[in-house]
Amino acid sequence: xxxxxxxxxxxxxxxxxxxxxxxxxxxxxxxxxxxxxxxxxxxxxxxxxxxxxxxxxxxxxxxxxxxxxxxxxxxxxxxxxxxxxxxxxxxxxxxxxxxxxxxxxxxxxxxxxxxxxxxxxxxxxxxxxxxxxxxxxxxxxxxxxxxxxxxxxxxxxxxxxxxxxxxxxxxxxxxxxxxxxxxxxxxxxxxxxxxxxxxxxxxxxxxxx
Length: 209
Ligand code: SF4
Ligand code: SF4
What we know:
The chain is α+β, with helices and mostly antiparallel strands. It has helices at residues 4-27, 34-40, 89-93, 131-135, 154-157, 162-165, 169-175, 177-208, and strands at 68-74, 80-82, 99-105, 112-122, 141-143, 159-160, 166-168. The protein is elongated and about 95 Å long. The model has no long low-confidence stretch (mean pLDDT 92). The protein binds iron/sulfur cluster (SF4) (2 copies). One iron/sulfur cluster (SF4) is lined by residues 84-90, 101, 136, 138, 140-141. One iron/sulfur cluster (SF4) is lined by residues 68, 94-96, 98-99, 121, 126-132.
Protein backbone atom coordinates (compact mmCIF):
# COMPACT_ATOMS: atom_id res chain seq x y z
CA UNK A 1 0.00 0.00 0.00
CA UNK A 2 1.30 3.48 -0.89
CA UNK A 3 2.42 5.34 2.29
CA UNK A 4 2.51 2.18 4.43
CA UNK A 5 6.21 2.80 5.31
CA UNK A 6 5.46 6.35 6.49
CA UNK A 7 2.59 5.16 8.68
CA UNK A 8 4.80 2.41 10.13
CA UNK A 9 7.56 4.95 10.87
CA UNK A 10 5.15 7.34 12.55
CA UNK A 11 3.84 4.41 14.59
CA UNK A 12 7.37 3.75 15.91
CA UNK A 13 7.71 7.42 16.86
CA UNK A 14 4.30 7.40 18.57
CA UNK A 15 5.21 4.23 20.48
CA UNK A 16 8.43 5.82 21.76
CA UNK A 17 6.50 8.97 22.69
CA UNK A 18 3.92 7.02 24.73
CA UNK A 19 6.58 4.76 26.24
CA UNK A 20 8.25 7.88 27.63
CA UNK A 21 5.19 8.47 29.86
CA UNK A 22 5.15 4.80 30.91
CA UNK A 23 8.86 5.05 31.78
CA UNK A 24 8.16 8.31 33.66
CA UNK A 25 5.46 6.69 35.79
CA UNK A 26 7.53 3.55 36.35
CA UNK A 27 10.71 5.41 37.38
CA UNK A 28 9.15 8.36 39.22
CA UNK A 29 11.78 10.75 40.59
CA UNK A 30 14.55 8.28 39.77
CA UNK A 31 14.21 9.32 36.11
CA UNK A 32 16.25 12.46 36.82
CA UNK A 33 18.88 10.76 38.99
CA UNK A 34 22.22 9.40 37.70
CA UNK A 35 20.58 5.97 37.57
CA UNK A 36 17.74 7.35 35.44
CA UNK A 37 20.14 9.09 33.03
CA UNK A 38 22.16 5.89 32.71
CA UNK A 39 18.95 3.99 31.91
CA UNK A 40 17.85 6.57 29.36
CA UNK A 41 21.16 6.32 27.54
CA UNK A 42 21.16 2.50 27.58
CA UNK A 43 19.86 0.08 24.96
CA UNK A 44 17.00 -0.92 27.32
CA UNK A 45 15.26 2.45 27.21
CA UNK A 46 11.68 2.32 25.94
CA UNK A 47 10.73 5.99 25.65
CA UNK A 48 12.61 8.99 24.27
CA UNK A 49 16.31 8.58 24.78
CA UNK A 50 17.29 12.24 24.90
CA UNK A 51 18.62 13.98 28.01
CA UNK A 52 17.99 17.60 28.93
CA UNK A 53 21.53 18.91 28.51
CA UNK A 54 23.05 20.93 30.25
CA UNK A 55 20.84 20.16 33.30
CA UNK A 56 21.41 16.46 32.65
CA UNK A 57 24.59 14.92 31.29
CA UNK A 58 25.29 11.51 29.85
CA UNK A 59 27.85 9.44 31.75
CA UNK A 60 31.26 9.73 30.09
CA UNK A 61 32.96 6.45 29.11
CA UNK A 62 36.52 6.02 30.40
CA UNK A 63 38.05 6.07 26.92
CA UNK A 64 36.36 9.36 25.98
CA UNK A 65 38.99 11.87 24.80
CA UNK A 66 38.92 15.64 24.79
CA UNK A 67 41.75 18.12 25.40
CA UNK A 68 44.87 16.66 27.07
CA UNK A 69 46.01 17.75 30.53
CA UNK A 70 49.35 17.49 32.36
CA UNK A 71 49.56 15.32 35.45
CA UNK A 72 51.28 16.25 38.69
CA UNK A 73 51.73 14.18 41.86
CA UNK A 74 51.32 15.71 45.31
CA UNK A 75 54.48 15.21 47.33
CA UNK A 76 55.50 16.34 50.82
CA UNK A 77 54.28 19.73 52.09
CA UNK A 78 51.75 20.02 49.28
CA UNK A 79 54.52 20.43 46.69
CA UNK A 80 53.70 19.48 43.12
CA UNK A 81 55.86 17.04 41.23
CA UNK A 82 55.17 17.58 37.54
CA UNK A 83 55.60 14.35 35.62
CA UNK A 84 56.49 16.04 32.34
CA UNK A 85 60.22 16.13 31.63
CA UNK A 86 59.82 18.39 28.56
CA UNK A 87 61.27 15.63 26.38
CA UNK A 88 59.23 16.97 23.45
CA UNK A 89 57.95 13.62 22.14
CA UNK A 90 54.29 14.68 22.38
CA UNK A 91 55.01 17.88 20.41
CA UNK A 92 56.77 15.85 17.72
CA UNK A 93 53.97 13.30 17.27
CA UNK A 94 51.08 15.79 17.48
CA UNK A 95 49.58 15.71 13.94
CA UNK A 96 48.36 19.34 13.78
CA UNK A 97 51.41 20.58 15.75
CA UNK A 98 49.43 22.37 18.45
CA UNK A 99 51.84 21.73 21.36
CA UNK A 100 54.66 24.13 22.24
CA UNK A 101 57.07 23.45 25.06
CA UNK A 102 59.51 25.86 26.71
CA UNK A 103 62.33 23.99 28.36
CA UNK A 104 63.77 24.99 31.76
CA UNK A 105 67.43 25.71 32.27
CA UNK A 106 69.53 25.84 35.39
CA UNK A 107 70.35 29.57 35.68
CA UNK A 108 73.85 28.80 37.00
CA UNK A 109 75.02 26.06 34.66
CA UNK A 110 72.71 26.71 31.71
CA UNK A 111 72.02 22.98 31.58
CA UNK A 112 68.47 21.79 30.87
CA UNK A 113 66.22 20.82 33.79
CA UNK A 114 63.74 17.99 33.13
CA UNK A 115 60.64 20.10 33.71
CA UNK A 116 58.88 22.47 31.31
CA UNK A 117 59.18 26.20 32.01
CA UNK A 118 55.92 26.45 30.12
CA UNK A 119 53.75 24.16 28.08
CA UNK A 120 51.13 25.37 25.62
CA UNK A 121 48.33 23.65 23.74
CA UNK A 122 46.18 25.48 21.23
CA UNK A 123 42.86 23.83 22.05
CA UNK A 124 41.22 25.21 18.91
CA UNK A 125 43.65 23.19 16.82
CA UNK A 126 43.84 20.04 18.95
CA UNK A 127 41.90 17.28 17.20
CA UNK A 128 41.57 15.11 20.32
CA UNK A 129 43.45 12.22 18.70
CA UNK A 130 45.22 11.18 21.91
CA UNK A 131 48.59 10.51 20.24
CA UNK A 132 50.41 12.77 22.71
CA UNK A 133 49.10 10.64 25.60
CA UNK A 134 49.87 7.39 23.76
CA UNK A 135 53.50 8.32 23.12
CA UNK A 136 54.40 10.05 26.40
CA UNK A 137 56.99 7.82 28.12
CA UNK A 138 56.23 9.28 31.57
CA UNK A 139 52.39 9.05 31.74
CA UNK A 140 52.54 12.82 32.07
CA UNK A 141 49.89 13.88 29.55
CA UNK A 142 46.41 12.37 29.64
CA UNK A 143 43.26 12.92 27.63
CA UNK A 144 40.64 14.78 29.65
CA UNK A 145 36.89 14.21 29.86
CA UNK A 146 35.99 17.88 30.29
CA UNK A 147 34.19 18.91 27.11
CA UNK A 148 32.52 22.10 28.37
CA UNK A 149 35.08 24.60 27.14
CA UNK A 150 32.87 27.33 25.65
CA UNK A 151 34.34 30.81 26.08
CA UNK A 152 33.45 34.30 24.87
CA UNK A 153 36.83 35.02 23.33
CA UNK A 154 38.74 32.12 21.86
CA UNK A 155 41.77 34.26 20.99
CA UNK A 156 42.30 35.11 24.67
CA UNK A 157 41.23 31.84 26.27
CA UNK A 158 42.06 28.93 24.02
CA UNK A 159 45.82 28.75 24.23
CA UNK A 160 46.18 26.72 27.42
CA UNK A 161 49.38 27.22 29.38
CA UNK A 162 51.11 25.00 31.92
CA UNK A 163 49.07 26.25 34.89
CA UNK A 164 45.80 25.70 33.07
CA UNK A 165 46.86 22.27 31.85
CA UNK A 166 48.09 20.92 35.19
CA UNK A 167 45.75 18.59 37.10
CA UNK A 168 46.48 16.26 40.04
CA UNK A 169 47.01 12.52 39.65
CA UNK A 170 43.87 12.00 41.81
CA UNK A 171 41.81 13.62 39.05
CA UNK A 172 43.36 11.23 36.53
CA UNK A 173 42.48 8.29 38.82
CA UNK A 174 38.94 9.61 39.13
CA UNK A 175 38.19 9.89 35.40
CA UNK A 176 40.26 6.95 34.11
CA UNK A 177 40.63 4.39 36.93
CA UNK A 178 41.48 1.43 34.67
CA UNK A 179 44.09 3.29 32.64
CA UNK A 180 45.58 4.77 35.81
CA UNK A 181 45.96 1.29 37.33
CA UNK A 182 47.45 -0.21 34.15
CA UNK A 183 50.08 2.55 33.97
CA UNK A 184 50.80 2.38 37.72
CA UNK A 185 51.29 -1.41 37.51
CA UNK A 186 53.56 -1.08 34.46
CA UNK A 187 55.66 1.55 36.27
CA UNK A 188 55.92 -0.62 39.40
CA UNK A 189 57.00 -3.62 37.28
CA UNK A 190 59.64 -1.55 35.52
CA UNK A 191 60.97 -0.23 38.83
CA UNK A 192 61.07 -3.77 40.28
CA UNK A 193 63.02 -5.03 37.25
CA UNK A 194 65.46 -2.12 37.54
CA UNK A 195 65.97 -2.79 41.26
CA UNK A 196 66.49 -6.52 40.62
CA UNK A 197 69.06 -5.81 37.87
CA UNK A 198 70.90 -3.37 40.15
CA UNK A 199 70.94 -5.87 43.03
CA UNK A 200 72.27 -8.57 40.68
CA UNK A 201 75.04 -6.27 39.46
CA UNK A 202 76.01 -5.34 43.02
CA UNK A 203 76.01 -9.01 44.09
CA UNK A 204 78.26 -9.91 41.12
CA UNK A 205 80.65 -7.05 41.98
CA UNK A 206 80.74 -8.13 45.65
CA UNK A 207 81.47 -11.76 44.63
CA UNK A 208 84.42 -10.61 42.48
CA UNK A 209 85.78 -8.93 45.57
S1 SF4 B 1 54.10 15.41 28.19
FE1 SF4 B 1 55.29 13.52 28.07
S2 SF4 B 1 55.94 13.39 25.93
FE2 SF4 B 1 55.26 15.50 26.28
S3 SF4 B 1 57.12 16.60 26.79
FE3 SF4 B 1 56.18 15.96 28.72
S4 SF4 B 1 57.15 14.01 29.21
FE4 SF4 B 1 57.59 14.40 27.03
S1 SF4 C 1 45.29 15.09 21.29
FE1 SF4 C 1 46.31 14.91 19.29
S2 SF4 C 1 46.03 16.92 18.37
FE2 SF4 C 1 45.58 17.15 20.57
S3 SF4 C 1 47.52 17.78 21.47
FE3 SF4 C 1 47.44 15.56 21.61
S4 SF4 C 1 48.49 14.83 19.74
FE4 SF4 C 1 47.97 16.97 19.42
